[in-house]
Each structure stands twice: as C-alpha cells, then as structure tokens.
Amino acid sequence: MDLEALERVIAEKGADKISFVRMEATTNLIGGQPFSMENLKAVSEIAHKNHLLLVIDCSLISENAFFIKTREAGFSEKSIPEIIQEMLQQADLIYMSGRKSTMARGGMICTNDEKIYHEILPLVPVFEGFITYGGMSTKEIEAMAVGLREMVDFNVAGSGAEMINFFTNRLISLGVPVVTPPGGLGCHVDAIKFLPHLSQTEYPAGALAAAFYIVSGCRGMERGTLSMDRDKNGKEEVSDMELMRLAVPRRSFTMSQIEFAADRLAWLYQHRNLVHGLKWIEEPPVLRFFLGKLTSIDGWENSLTEAIKSDSRMN
Ligand SMILES: Cc1ncc(COP(=O)(O)O)c(C=O)c1O
Predict the structure, then answer these.
(1) What are the C-alpha distances in Å from 165 to residues 21, 115, 125, 192, 266?
(2) Which CATH superfamily is domain 158-314 in?
(3) Which residue ranges have their beta carbon within 6 Å of ligand 1?
(4) How do residues 241-254 score in pLDDT, each as one tens digit?
(5) How far does the centroid of ligand 1 lie from the alpha carbon of residue 63, in Å?
(6) Cα of 295 to ligand 1 centre, how many Å?
(7) Domains in the chain: boundaries
(8) Which of 82, 182, 278, 281 could form a disulfide with 293 if both were Cys (CB 3.0 to 4.6 A apart)?
(9) Tell me: the pLDDT tens digits for 72-131?
C-alpha cells in the first residue's frame, strides 16, 4: 500500500465516507504480489488513527506469510503460524476464499470484535446459510480445517510460490515479459509489453488470454481493462496494468505441464503480431469480465490457428 496515497485519499474523501481499508494477501490485480509486515502495520496505524476498519483478504495468506519469512528482515526465524498471527492481529475483520490457501470449496469471515460479529450475524442466514454451516457442507468444513492446518507447513506454504518462481524464471529466459519478482498466485504475463501494437481499449490482456488458449489449451485470466467497469458516463476506465494471470495452484500441475505452457507462450511471443484486439458482443453493466462475451476485431484467430497448425514442431 502506498502510505502517502492512503493518507491523501482519507484526507480528501473524509474518513466518514470510507467503509474500510482492505489489504489483499497476496494482491490479485498486481500480479499476486505480497505485502510486507512493515507495510501492513503502517496501514493498520493509519486506518485505526482515522477510526477505519482494517479488513484483510486472507485467500492466499500462507503464501504472503511465506514471502515475509523468506524476504523480510527479522522474520526468517519465525514460523508461518507466528507470522500469520502477527499479520491478523492488525485486522478488525478477515475473510478468505478457501479455494486458495486451504484448497477447499467455500470460505470464511472471522473477527475478534464482538460488535462486528453481532452486526454480521443476522446477514449470514440471509446471504449464506444458517450460522453453524454458512451454506457449506460439513464435508467441506472438515476439508477446510485440514487445509488450514496444512497451509501453515512451511513446505506447503511455499510450494505454489516455488513453482511460480520456476515458471516465471523460465519465461524470463525465453524472453517473455512477466511481472517480477514472482508473486504468490500465479505467473503474470505483461500484456502491454507482449502486445505493444494494441491499445488498452482493444483489451490486450484479454486478447492474449484468448490467443494463448488457442495455441496451448491453457486457460489464463485477463487482469486489466476488461476487469474494470466503465465509469457512470459509460467511458472506458483503462487499467494501470494489463496482465494475463496463469494461476499455479499448489499440487495441481506437473513440471512438464509448466514446461509445456512456457514453450507455447514463447511460441506465441514469436508470433505476437498475429494477435489483434477484442470487441464486445454482450457487455454486462457490472463485473463484465465474468459474464460478458467478446469476439476478435478482425478474425485474427484464423491466421493464428493456421500458423500453429502449420508449425512443423507442433505436428
Ligand atoms: C484474493 C481473492 N479473494 C477472493 C476471491 C473469491 O473467491 P471465491 O470465488 O472462492 O469466493 C478470489 C478469487 O479468485 C481471490 O483471488
């Protein structure tokens, strides 16, 4: 978190107009980058000085803790559970998608603050399910309990990060532009550098994900302008970054699958001029990246498909 920007926004908007300050461990839209304990504590101080709640998205908390242990001075001797506890002591409320660090379907919201607990309580049956199970099956709650114990094992916490590190470095050696240092969620390809001939309103990260699927069958996720909504006048809000996320969940891929993806991405980089932009067929007004439909601006996918089919290495 840019601390100066945070203070400036609070001063400009007024703390009474802000519901909460949120940190995401690790942060999706900037390439799965972690935050440091030092930064988190400074954010916590600013939030609490202004009587604002600090919320942490803990979906990849064990990965963030792994990076704090391995990269931040003073933490190498601390265990992952100790680091997670120190992180979470800064927060008023935490929530987590169990699909990432705990490898279970479902999620949780936790707080030590009884006032917040009683505010949330009546909403749980309305939106999730009764308070004892929150819409999840017992089997899934048990799986999440196992996942919570496993995720704090140093080797488990670092296993995704190590594979992402390998994948990212392999792509760097092949000349493919990626976000560095490697983060915690996946390997993130820089679509602005990959497809410099596209403008951001042609959705370079979305076009890259579509092209990569055609040449490899691997599904990447657009994290850029497509993932933003238009402003209230319908004007496109271009994103600060245009990334294709290649998520690397732990215990999911073999090394040869990673090598395959890297090889196909390097091929695509050499043929990047064949990739052009995308345009909307159906554009929902909110969260358009979930349900919207797009097509290529000029049928470029046909020449890309021809090129990969006719490459002798691929036959
Ligand atoms: C950081 C983060 N938080 C929350 C979610 C939402 O997860 P779910 O679909 O399990 O609710 C995601 C999904 O990708 C995520 O990456």
Answers:
(1) 30, 42, 41, 21, 17
(2) Aspartate Aminotransferase, domain 1 (3.90.1150.10)
(3) 24, 28, 57, 59, 97, 99, 107
(4) 999 999 998 889 99
(5) 15
(6) 26
(7) 3-152, 158-314
(8) 281
(9) 999 999 999 999 999 999 999 999 999 988 999 989 999 999 999 999 999 999 998 888
